[in-house]
Design goal:
Elements lengths: L1 E4 L14 H9 L3 E5 L10 H7 L2 E3 L2 H5 L4 E3 L6 H6 L5 E4 L10 H6 L3 E4 L14 H20 L7 E3 L2 E3 L3 E5 L3 H12 L3 E5 L6 H6 L3 E3 L19 H15 L4 E4 L14 H5 L6 E4 L16 E4 L2 E4 L9 H19 L14 H6 E4 L2 E2 L8
Parallel strand pairs: 1-2, 1-4, 2-3, 4-5, 5-6, 9-10, 9-12, 10-11, 12-13, 13-15
Antiparallel strand pairs: 6-16, 7-8, 14-15, 16-17
């Protein structure tokens, strides 16, 4: 069995789908591993290190994926890369199913079995394979680091002979994986942290990290069966806007992380709110790739609006590429070794397993995922 690891070609993407450690593990399972030259450079992994782990280095994508049974990617392949993938191969990665549906028919035409790991069911058995959690964790961390680097003030309280420096105030909007890590990182740096989420169930987690939880009193069910935040009523949104407006004026840093899968990001920070924030304060909008929690955010730009700095980097995990690649590669290995490779080292896909069913986009020349089939 051959596993191919392609270099990422999207601008700004520094991650890679396999590390030397995961290459060794695949080889121990009985696979041959081919890595396209330069694939790991963005994550500080040279071709020589891959070779030492047992991988074959290929000069181009065509030779890398030739006769491959499994092709590993971080982001969706470009159309020319899809043309190189052998018919019947498995393509596994974060294939961005909600925004890259134009590729589905291309996968189907090549009879590629495309697996999108963002769609993993949120069950305990899938935790070691959960790419969204591993990458969001790092995104929340990096968001705070970028905010602090941009902010022209110290974060912790400091007692000096010349007087006391007050601690920075940080507000985190959305207490999912990224938000909770942002809270933890800001607290470690000495900030006074508060957090908002539509889901009352996360209050205990927020407070356990030392942050104050602010909430809108409501009887609505704020959580989907998959554990994500759902879109709320207009009445709730009006109360939410007033709550955030009242709090945001006092903040030095705001980290916004709110996303609804398959839908535009909810607007939480209005232009009026930005106008009323303190000059020199910072917003980091982690939802910018889905339209942004703030309408003033600009994709992959740092902008000054009304004296407020708004950071809009769309790929935070890539800004911590070494660790992001390491975690992602482990997620991939856990998925593949459990569900794709048999005990004798051959390809043995457990097609009826709920984790495969939940992530499989195309198979046998058709789109098979129920959520994306044309009705």
């Amino acid at each position: 069995m051959k596993i191919a690891v392609l270099r990422e070609r999207k601008e700004g993407e520094l991650r890679v789908a396999a590390t030397p450690d995961s290459v060794k593990k695949y080889i121990n399972l009985g696979a041959n591993v081919s890595v396209e030259t330069g694939a790991g450079l963005g994550s500080s992994i040279t071709d020589e290190v891959y070779q030492a782990a047992g991988a074959i280095i290929c000069a181009d994508p065509q030779s890398c994926v030739g006769n491959a049974d499994i092709v590993l990617k971080v982001r969706p392949p470009e159309s020319n890369e899809i043309s190189f993938i052998p018919e019947g191969a498995l393509l596994i990665g974060m294939l961005e199913p909600y925004t890259s549906q134009s590729y589905f028919n291309m996968y189907a035409l090549k009879n590629i079995s495309a697996v999108s790991l963002e769609l993993l069911p949120r069950i305990s058995r899938a935790q070691s394979m959960d790419v969204l959690s591993s990458q969001s964790n790092l995104a929340g961390y990096r968001a705070v680091i970028d905010a602090v680097a941009t902010f022209g003030k110290a974060v912790p309280m400091m007692m000096t002979a010349a007087g006391t420096v007050a601690p920075a105030k940080v507000l985190v909007l959305g207490a999912g994986v990224a938000g909770l890590q942002a809270i933890a990182t800001a607290k470690r740096l000495g900030a006074v942290v508060s957090a908002f989420d539509v889901r009352p169930v996360v209050k205990e987690q927020v407070e356990s990290l030392g942050a104050k939880f602010i909430e809108v009193a409501a009887e609505e069910n704020a959580e989907t069966s998959g554990g994500y935040a759902r879109e709320m009523s207009e009445d709730y949104k009006r109360k939410q806007e007033k709550l955030i407006f009242d709090h945001i004026q006092k903040q030095d840093v705001v980290i916004s992380t709110a996303l609804i899968p398959g839908k535009p990001a909810p607007v939480l920070i209005t232009e009026e709110m930005v106008q009323n924030m303190k000059p020199g304060s910072v917003i980091v909008d982690l939802a910018v790739a889905s339209g942004g929690n703030c309408p003033l955010s600009e994709l992959d730009q740092v902008v000054d609006k009304y004296g407020v700095i708004i950071v809009g980097f769309s790929n935070m995990p890539s800004r911590v590429a070494v660790d992001a690649s390491g975690l992602y590669a482990r997620n991939l290995y856990n998925y593949i070794s459990t569900l794709i490779i048999g005990k004798d080292g051959t390809l043995d896909v457990k097609w009826d397993d709920e984790l495969v069913v939940g992530t499989l986009l195309t198979k046998g020349g058709t789109i098979v995922h129920k959520q994306f089939q044309v009705k």
